Amino acid sequence: MTTVAQSGGAVVPAQSHVPAGRPLWSLLEDAFVDEGAEHLTVHGRWGAIEIADTSPLVREALHRMSLGPVALENISALHENFVRWKTGSGPCLVWRKLKNTLDQLGGCLVPSLGLDDGAGPILSVVAVTRDAVFGLPHISADQPVTMRRGTEIERLNGDQALACAGQQYQVILHNAPATEIAKWLLDTETTVASVAEALHLEKALVSDVVAYLAGAGLVVTARR
User: Fold this and answer.
1) Is residue 210 exposed (0-12), middle (13-18) or buried (19+ Cβ within 10 Å)?
2) Which of 30, 69, 175, 216 is the most buried (most CB within 10 A)?
3) Is 180 helix (H, G, I), strand (E, B) or coil?
4) Positions of the chain with pLDDT lower than 50, given as ranges
5) How far is residue 210's CA from residue 191's CA, in Å, rounded to a whole number?
């Protein structure tokens, strides 16, 4: 599949980025799960979402996500499939089916990025519209990128957050190096490789952060 650009250079995730870091998932703080023997419903600020797949895997994933940002690969029934997705080493239909179900949650789903140190997320992507669906676009290390015009860093509940009027998401910058990478992108048109060199960071880590910011619509590709 090819990558398609939206107006303004935003990237629609057709060719997906697979994080080198640790992807985490949670529900919005005001969302909760209502489950019965034959139904599964997520209630959030934009109303109720009926989940068609009421399998034990989906129930377990939603339960864990309601507790805060979690690594879904820790679910035993998902682990092997998740590893195959991360490493590109084989089919991962179970993971893809679960991800398609999670996408039905729209703005109630909060994707986050963590490091392998298990210390929690360095950034979280929080929707401001009901119909937001998050994806991670692939951006090559030498592709020029910049922050979308109008994007600013604001204070939000004690954290720093990237926001831009009219976009479906804001990004909470919990910890370094996400904050440093975001500030660097605010200042100039650059590339993943250049940011990694300037900030003395692993290229894979910078690529992860840029992909999450691009998936939120805040980083856009620049014409060469």
Assistant:
1) buried
2) 216
3) helix
4) 1-14
5) 9
CA distance 171 to 127: 9
**Distance between CA 60 and CA 78 in Å, rounded?**
11
What is the value of pTM for the model shown?
0.90
Q: How confident is the model over 140-158, as pLDDT tens digits?
A: 999 999 999 999 999 888 8
CA distance 69 to 58: 16
Angle at 114 between CA 184 and CA 137, to 5 degrees: 65
Contacting residues for 48 by C-beta, under 8 A, at least 6 apart: 41, 42
List pLDDT tens digits, range 54-93: 999 999 999 999 999 999 999 999 999 999 999 988 889 9
Place of tokens 């992807």: 23
| DSSP code, position 195 | H
Give the whole-angstrom CA distance, residue 78 versus residue 72: 8
H/E segment holding residue 18: none
Neighbour-count burial for 26-55, b at 16+ CB within 10 Å, e otherwise: bbbeebebeeeeeebebebeeeebebeebe
The amino acid that residue 70 corresponds to is V
